């Protein structure tokens, strides 16, 4: 599997390298206010890709932070409810019998553990 992934990565690299070699022609990018930028086509495409990734991350960042905060709150709420659970002893109706306690190797009264 490792060799297959290496082969796939090599194929992708060679395809992109061939694309870059075939698109070395200079292009003029006309910007606002009469400004223009002249660069190889591959560089223009690379800059557009990097700007697109950057803008995508920038737009998604608030959503990721909000989801992370929500997960943190849910985890702390779950931890708070876990500590508030019943601590059963042998007098509780949900506690296992003394035979079950000795079968599991516990000699102390049974308790919920998390």
Chart the SSEs and their pairings:
Elements: H1 2-22, E1 26-30, E2 36-40, H2 41-83, H3 98-103
Antiparallel strand pairs: 1-2
Task: Describe the fold and architecture.
With 114 residues, the chain is mostly helical. The protein folds into two domains: 2-82, no CATH class; 84-114, no CATH class. Helix content is 61%, strand content 9%. It has helices spanning 2-22, 41-83, 98-103; strands at residues 26-30, 36-40. The chain has a two-stranded antiparallel ribbon. A hairpin with a 5-residue loop joins strand 1 (26-30) and strand 2 (36-40). The radius of gyration is 31 Å and the shape is flat.
User: What is the tally of helical segments?
Assistant: 3
Mean pLDDT: 78
**What is the helix content?**
55-70%
Structural class comes to mainly alpha
Q: Which regions contain 5 or more consecutive residues with pLDDT less than 50?
A: none
Q: How many domains, in number, for the residues? A: 2
- Envelope shape: flat
Number of strands: 2
| Strand content bin | 5-15%
Described by strand count, sense and barrel closure, the largest sheet is: 2 strands, antiparallel
Q: SSE order in H/E notation? A: HEEHH
**What's the Cα radius of gyration?**
31 Å
Largest sheet strand order? 1-2
Q: Give the end-to-end Cα distance, rounded to a whole number of Å.
A: 39 Å
